[in-house]
Amino acid sequence: MNDQIKLYGESSFKNLWSVYHLRFVKGAYQELVATSPMKDYVKNESALEDGVRYSLPVNGAKMSEKANFQVPILIDVREQTASGTTKRTQAIAAAESFISDLAQGPFELKIPALNSVFRLVFEQAGQINAFIEGVVVVTLRLTEPNPLNRAE
Questions:
Q1: Of 56, 68, 73, 143, which has the highest C-beta tally within 10 A?
Q2: Distance (Å, rounded) from C-alpha 109 to C-alpha 132?
Q3: Structural domain contains residue 149
Q4: Considering the chain, what percentage of its residues have pLDDT values greater than 90?
Q5: pLDDT, tens digit, 9 for 90 and up, residues 111-138
Q6: How many helices (H) and strands (E) does the chain have?
Q7: Which residues make Cβ contacts (< 8 Å) with residue 141, sequence separation at least 6?
Q8: Strand partners, 141
Q9: Residue 59 within a domain
Q10: The CATH number of the domain where 54 resides is what?
Q11: Residue 123 is inside which H or E element, if any?
Q12: Which residues of 53-75 are buried (b: 16+ CB within 10 A; e: fewer)?
């Protein structure tokens, strides 16, 4: 649970668990490290010649952005004490707070287990599902503008 986030405009990373009570759901890491599509080659489909002529880049093929991939997260506030509110209400409020923080602009996600820092843009959040009192699951839709920019 050492995953960290640096939000837009902030200078340091914050621990996702201690600040937001957030964990990644099974399959989230696989979505983060999945490969990106390649950019289309420039091609000439002239009617004056048979077939198609491709203009290949000098330095090889280029990667495109990894757009609109989904990362499931879990927010667990069962250990928190709240006066006057239910744990379900508190968990939903924590999820909404996290989503509004992501919507401020680009952010960085540091995952020590993957030895990577992902530079991401928040696109949208799916429905907030509350299955257990104090636990909510949300699917985030994210874009990674430059998948080759993951070095720490």
A1: 73
A2: 27
A3: no
A4: 22
A5: 998 888 999 999 999 988 887 888 999 9
A6: 3, 10
A7: 68, 69, 70, 122, 123, 124, 125, 126
A8: 70, 124
A9: yes
A10: 2.40.30
A11: strand 116-125
A12: eeeeeeeeeeeeebeebebbbbb
